[in-house]
């Protein structure tokens, strides 16, 4: 597809990142330009950058239309990418300038192409050879023609940089200019991968067929941990690279990236490009540019990698597709899993959604024939899902202030005797969710939010999980000032750790919770130590459910299986089911079948029963039927509206005004609920009011919402955010 060209002086429309609701008219700069070109334009007294979006609208006084200054030396934005940004903007009701910001979020893009000096072996010989000089020359000869940066070379040879400079003077070392942003080392898709089992090979062959067809398609790749999902989708990556197209792998968590990069290197002989918050600014710019110039074959990244300017994208893998972190919860509110499918359809690319516990949305799309489905059996056979039983807490004798039942204690004892590991799972960080004064009944809350402060005893602080505010643990009650009456109520992982230490004094007990590690690397190191046997009992939050392997682990005890079931979230059952299955899936590996024990006060609850029976398809079918009956996603459409303001009355006034002006919503048959205080009614000092819109699947929800919201003026200090397909209802 060739983009339309504009001769010098022709009217063009330029989209900038300035917060305006329209594309601005300019005249094409000297030499002309084409749609998609990145250009510099005058904007008031400033110069800003933008993208030529097409022909100018011509509705502006022609005498006042200014000329674009120049076309920037950047690869033009391709038509499918421009269409993608427009479609995401329409779907998420995001202004286009914000979309452009998302798509050009790499530092220094408009800087002139950077150069740097590199050093390689020259033809001359130094007049006098010294041991230091010899080391430099040996090193360069060893690396046959490769160029080094000055500091790099001096370090490797163990000399000062003046030694290298001296060699340059004699011509023994050549100094050259090289571009700063260089292509990534080539990946070799012909290297042999791991040997695949029959059903892995079958699945890989199906994915290769899709790639070879060169058209759009989405496949749900389902398999438990250890079934070889990664090996299978790396075969799809290999096929994509062989076809000369680029591939993108999205991962839900940065902590998993390092392990994945190593696997890519083992499979293709070099590391891929990376795109996530842990990447340096220079590497981000290099990645952005090389992706556009076809100098990066494979990108591994977080959700925002979806907005990189791929030259020819042939495959997107969304690993752990059910993971809630794919939903961006501030700024542009998009779901990377769904937008990956949109982008692939515009690029004639394939999508692989990989998961052991798929989202209901993807399951329904398979049922409706929109997605293909491939199932991987475990390579260890049926033994890999552990034996699952409930512990009925109504009949267990558990002393107050304790949470580990005698039945669970006995099971842990057995593992200790056999030298095996146990995991005690509780999805709650900190020591106790509530600190109560036993003198006056006061509960310690956050100053800025309507959330309780959570005691983190290991850090000796109280912490708000909404806004991150921390405070030292007080000695006296902040309300009645009585000392020594503050009591921890309920358990967090730290408290379970304390209880386990008391129950099993000879065992090595460790806790895995994201807040206890300074960096992703420190966490990763600890996980590897534990996997190798550095602990007998691991107490952990949902962190442990995310793809980590613990081969010595044979028992999982879920402290509170009922925890996720009480929320008003429409996905509560789905999330509990997924989480319990993921956690239970940690127990048992190759040799020994594991056991999962679920402590529950309501073991007859349908979700708990479905988890225990292991009847996944039955659970999905029942859950799908319930959602269909209620007309909620994926069978109906929803939008969450959050109004926030430092002034509670102002937030409610705006909400009430919107509720009265609901004609555009009624016209499409949508229902409006609210305004009501959000479940967390105050965050960071801002009061929050929620409205919820429910509509039928086929209703034109976005246009109605846009028309509806446009009727009110949002005061300067208030904010109105519209979240299509909300995942969070807080
Ligand atoms: Zn008190
Ligand atoms: Zn707070």
Description:
With 730 residues, the chain is of the alpha/beta class. Helices cover 31% and strands 23% of the residues. The protein contains 20 helices and 31 strands. The strands form eight sheets. The protein has a seven-stranded parallel beta sheet, with helices on both faces. The protein has a six-stranded parallel beta sheet with strand order 17-27-26-18-25-24, sandwiched between helices. The chain starts with a strand and ends in a 6-residue tail after the last strand. 42% of the residues are buried. The chain binds zinc ion (2 copies). Residues 446, 448-449, 451, 464, 466-467, 469 line the site of one zinc ion.
Which strand order does the major sheet show? 12-13-11-14-15-10-16
The percent range for strand residues is 15-25%
Total of DSSP H or I helical runs spanning 4+ residues: 20
Residue windows where pLDDT falls under 50 for at least 5 positions? none
Structure in a nutshell:
By secondary structure, the protein is of the alpha/beta class.
Layout of helices and strands:
Blueprint: E1 5-6, E2 11-16, E3 24-27, E4 33-34, E5 38-43, E6 46-55, E7 70-71, H1 79-92, H2 96-103, E8 115-121, H3 131-142, H4 150-157, H5 161-169, E9 173-179, H6 198-213, E10 217-222, H7 229-242, E11 246-250, H8 257-268, E12 273-275, H9 281-292, E13 298-301, E14 313-319, H10 336-347, E15 350-355, H11 360-367, E16 372-375, E17 387-392, H12 406-418, E18 421-425, E19 434-437, E20 453-456, E21 461-464, E22 470-472, E23 486-489, H13 493-503, E24 509-512, H14 520-531, E25 537-540, E26 553-558, H15 572-584, E27 595-600, H16 606-613, H17 616-630, E28 636-645, H18 648-660, H19 663-667, E29 671-683, E30 686-696, H20 701-709, E31 719-724
Parallel strand pairs: 10-15, 10-16, 11-13, 11-14, 12-13, 14-15, 17-27, 18-25, 18-26, 24-25, 26-27
Antiparallel strand pairs: 1-4, 2-3, 2-6, 5-6, 5-7, 8-9, 19-23, 20-21, 21-22, 28-30, 28-31, 29-30
Helix pairs in contact: 1-2, 1-10, 3-4, 6-7, 15-16
């Amino acid at each position: 597809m060739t983009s339309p060209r504009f001769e010098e002086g022709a009217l063009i429309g330029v989209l900038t990142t300035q917060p305006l609701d329209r594309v601005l008219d300019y005249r094409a700069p000297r030499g002309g330009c084409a749609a998609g070109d990145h250009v510099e334009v005058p904007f008031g007294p400033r110069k800003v950058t933008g993208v030529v979006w097409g022909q100018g609208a011509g509705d502006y006084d022609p005498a006042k239309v200014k000329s674009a200054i120049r076309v920037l030396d950047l690869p033009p934005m391709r038509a499918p990418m421009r269409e993608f940004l427009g479609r995401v903007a329409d779907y998420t009701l995001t202004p286009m300038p914000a979309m452009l910001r998302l798509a050009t979020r790499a530092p220094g893009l408009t800087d002139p192409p950077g150069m740097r000096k590199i050093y390689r072996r020259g033809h001359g010989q130094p007049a006098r050879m010294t041991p230091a000089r010899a080391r430099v020359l040996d090193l360069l000869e060893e690396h046959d023609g490769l160029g080094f940066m000055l500091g790099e070379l001096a370090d490797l040879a163990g000399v000062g940089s003046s030694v290298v400079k001296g060699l340059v003077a004699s011509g023994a070392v050549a100094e050259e200019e090289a571009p700063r942003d260089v292509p990534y080392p080539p990946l070799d898709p012909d290297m042999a991968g791991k040997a695949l089992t029959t059903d892995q090979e079958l699945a890989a062959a199906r994915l290769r067929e899709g790639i070879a067809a060169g058209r759009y398609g989405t496949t749900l790749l389902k398999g438990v941990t250890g079934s070889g999902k990664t090996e299978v989708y790396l075969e799809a990556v290999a096929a994509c690279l062989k076809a000369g197209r680029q591939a993108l792998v999205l991962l839900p968590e940065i902590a998993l990236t390092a392990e994945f990069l190593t696997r890519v290197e083992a499979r293709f002989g070099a590391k891929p490009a990376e795109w996530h918050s842990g990447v340096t600014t220079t590497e981000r710019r290099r990645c952005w540019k090389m992706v556009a110039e076809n100098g990066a074959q494979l990108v591994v990244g977080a959700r925002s990698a979806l907005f990189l300017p791929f030259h020819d994208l042939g495959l997107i893998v969304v690993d752990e597709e059910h993971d809630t972190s794919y939903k961006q919860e501030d700024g542009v509110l998009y779901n990377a899993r769904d937008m990956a499918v949109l982008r692939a359809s515009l690029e004639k690319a394939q999508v692989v959604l990989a998961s052991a516990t798929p989202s209901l949305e993807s399951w329904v799309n398979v049922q409706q024939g929109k997605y293909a489905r491939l199932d991987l059996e475990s390579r260890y056979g049926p033994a890999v899902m552990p034996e699952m039983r409930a512990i009925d807490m109504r009949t267990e004798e558990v002393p107050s202030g304790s949470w580990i039942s005698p039945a669970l204690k006995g099971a842990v004892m057995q593992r200790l005797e056999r030298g095996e590991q146990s995991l005690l799972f509780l999805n709650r960080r900190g020591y106790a969710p509530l600190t109560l004064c036993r003198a006056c009944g006061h509960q310690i809350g956050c100053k800025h939010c309507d959330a309780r402060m959570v005691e983190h005893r290991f850090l000796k602080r109280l912490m708000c999980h909404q806004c991150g505010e921390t405070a030292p643990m007080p000695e006296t009650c902040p309300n009645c000032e009585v000392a020594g009456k503050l009591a921890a109520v309920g358990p967090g992982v730290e408290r379970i750790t304390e209880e386990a230490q008391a129950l099993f004094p000879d065992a090595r007990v460790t806790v895995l919770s994201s807040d206890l590690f300074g960096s992703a690397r420190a966490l990763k190191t600890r996980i590897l130590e534990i996997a190798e046997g550095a602990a007998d009992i691991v107490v952990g939050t949902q962190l442990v459910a995310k793809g980590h392997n613990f081969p010595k682990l044979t028992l999982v005890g879920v402290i509170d299986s009922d925890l996720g079931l009480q929320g008003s979230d429409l996905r509560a059952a789905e999330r509990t089911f997924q989480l319990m299955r993921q956690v239970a899936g940690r127990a048992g590996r190759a040799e020994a079948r594991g056991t999962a024990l679920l402590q529950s006060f309501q073991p007859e609850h349908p979700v708990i029963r479905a988890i225990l029976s292991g009847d996944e398809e039955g659970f999905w079918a029942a859950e799908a039927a319930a959602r269909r009956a209620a007309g909620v996603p994926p069978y109906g459409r929803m939008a969450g509206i959050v109004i926030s303001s430092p002034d509670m009355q102002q937030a409610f006034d705006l909400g009430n005004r919107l509720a009265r002006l609901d004609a555009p919503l009624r016209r499409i048959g949508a229902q409006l609920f609210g305004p009501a205080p959000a479940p967390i009614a105050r965050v960071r000092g801002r009061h929050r009011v929620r409205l919820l819109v429910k509509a039928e699947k086929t209703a034109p929800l976005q246009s109605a919402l846009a028309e509806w919201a446009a009727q009110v003026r949002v005061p300067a200090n208030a904010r109105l955010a519209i979240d299509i397909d909300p995942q969070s209802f807080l």
